[in-house]
Amino acid sequence: MDISLQQVEYRYQIGTPFERLAITEVSIDIPSGTYLAIIGHTGSGKSTILQHLNALLKPTKGKVVIGNREITSGEKQKNLKEIRQKVGIVFQFPEHQLFEETVEKDICFGPMNFGVSETEARARARKAIKQVGLSEEILAKSPFDLSGGQMRRVAIAGVLAMEPDVIVLDEPTAGLDPRGRKEIMEMFYKLHKERNLSTVLVTHSMEDASLYADEIVIMHKGEVYKRGEPREIFQSPEGLLELGLDVPEVVRFQHKLEGTFNTKLDKTCITLEELTEAVSGLLRRGELV
Amino acid sequence: MMDKMIIGRYIPSNSVLHSMDPRSKLILIFLFVCIVFLANNAITYGVLVIYTLLMISLSKVPAKYLIGGLKPVIWLVLFTLFLHIFLTKEGTLLFEYGWIKIYEEGLRQGVFISLRFFLLILMTSLLTLTTTPIEITDGLETLLNPLKKFKFPVHELALMMSISLRFIPTLMQETEKIMKAQTARGVDFTSGPLKDRVKSIVPLLIPLFISSFKRAEELAIAMEARGYRGGEGRTKYRQLKWGMMDSGMLVFLGVVTIILTLLRT
């Protein structure tokens, strides 16, 4: 399912002294099957964009096209459930939304809201719990007896069981240990590839964005500052560094190396392997002096 | 959703009302609530309206915003207005249609009572709009201090108040966040049959309760870790300062009170 934001503006609490412009003139296309990362500081408008992707917020100007539905500021929208089933959002700290007595019931909650039968929902719960790397035994437990990391996975399973076409992730690894982070990011990437999902990742982590995303959008003060493939974005990291945004270690290393030895590597490296290869090439040719 | 609520909100500014001592503001509001009942004719209500308008202009709060804030209570006011109009049977008969009889006195009473409502709501909103919750509790704590002699837990009360006031916005945010998360999972909070809507409260309330309990525990630990052990001997970072303006405003309200007692019938 294609999603496209066209000249979207959103103001919070319009018409009060607390009115605040969150995003303005934001145009982003997310064709089916893309892995898009949205990066920016706190307050740059990332989370506001995210809530437009399944019509939790309506733009105050411009329009959002989700599949064949068009969401604009004026008209009242009916029957948004269809959109919400197709666009699953994993919010920040999704474990806060758990509430059922058992893990199984909680995972089934989403699908059953969208009219899936109980047997089908249970089958999906079993599938989803395996996808997030937990064992089936956990299904009978209370979600509140689990560890933080397990709760996070259960909550994610609850969204996966809705079988959305587009999955939107808001800092899905915040507060997890490095291993948990990696496992969860790998899992989403695998799902993205296998099910041909569209994935939108909202994150602070340049590392994750550069490793997984096909395209990166950098937000700054409510506007799109830059967009492009990871390699394009990191080709000139100066701008990003000026904004106080992090760049991946690999990119920073390359940038410093090039500065110190006044040389240029063949291409902008994203992974450690690429960097190693490029640097050893230079060494072999004896160019680093 | 809660955009329109003005009760309990604070608008930062540097107006006269903002810079006043919270104690004087609390006393003023208390007195105002009492003297509103002195008014009983058009002139005295006029005096009160002028006083309120003066206070609003001194507060620099946008009038449009204040009026917008009256919307949630308008139904209550209309209800009392109609009760008075239809149920009071005094004075001359103004209008008759079938069983509906409207008397002069009823109309008068209705309008006055509604006006009284509006004045009270406007003035109390002004208090919270121009005073931070912390200032209010500080002010209240000092005002209630004499009660300590009677073993009344003034400090604990003030602490409870400031903690609950502090966490109202947090709780609101949390509610909104969880509502959004559950909406994304297919819950419909705003439409559908009543039965479904009542049911949809469960996935909202349970996470809210859990996070509130967790937060309370964390707060208690954080306070103890920083050496909190009750109000005994505790000094204050914010000192309250009673200025000329505070005394002036009290005197002014005193004058208004005298005018009211002279003009009432």
Structural overview:
The complex is a heterodimer of chains A (289) and B (265). By secondary structure, chain A is an alpha/beta fold. Chain A has 11 helices and 10 strands. Chain A has a domain at 248-289. In chain A, the strands form 2 sheets. Chain A has a 6-stranded mixed β-sheet, sandwiched between helices. Chain A has a 4-stranded antiparallel β-sheet with strand order 2-1-4-5, covered by helices on one side. In chain A, helix 3 crosses helix 4, helix 3 (103-113) packs parallel to helix 5 (148-160) and helix 4 (118-131) packs across helix 5. The longest helix of chain A has 18 residues, at 178-195. Chain B is mainly alpha-helical and 265 residues long. In chain B, helix 2 (22-35) crosses helix 7 (133-144) and helix 3 (42-59) packs antiparallel against helix 11. The mean pLDDT of chain B is 87. The chains are: A alpha/beta (289), B mainly alpha (265). The interface between A and B is medium-sized, with 28 and 24 residues.
| Percent helix of chain A | 25-40%
Q: What fraction of residues of chain A sit in β-strands?
A: 15-25%
Q: Give the tally of β-strands of chain A.
A: 10
Q: Share of helix among residues of chain B?
A: 55-70%
Number of helices of chain A: 11
- Biggest sheet of chain A, in brief? 6 strands, mixed
Low-confidence runs of at least 5 consecutive residues of chain A:
none
User: Helix-strand pattern of chain B, N to C?
Assistant: HHHHHEEHHHHHH
Largest sheet of chain B: 2 strands, antiparallel
Radius of gyration of chain B: 23 Å
Coarse morphology of chain A: globular
Strand order of the largest sheet of chain A: 6-7-8-3-9-10
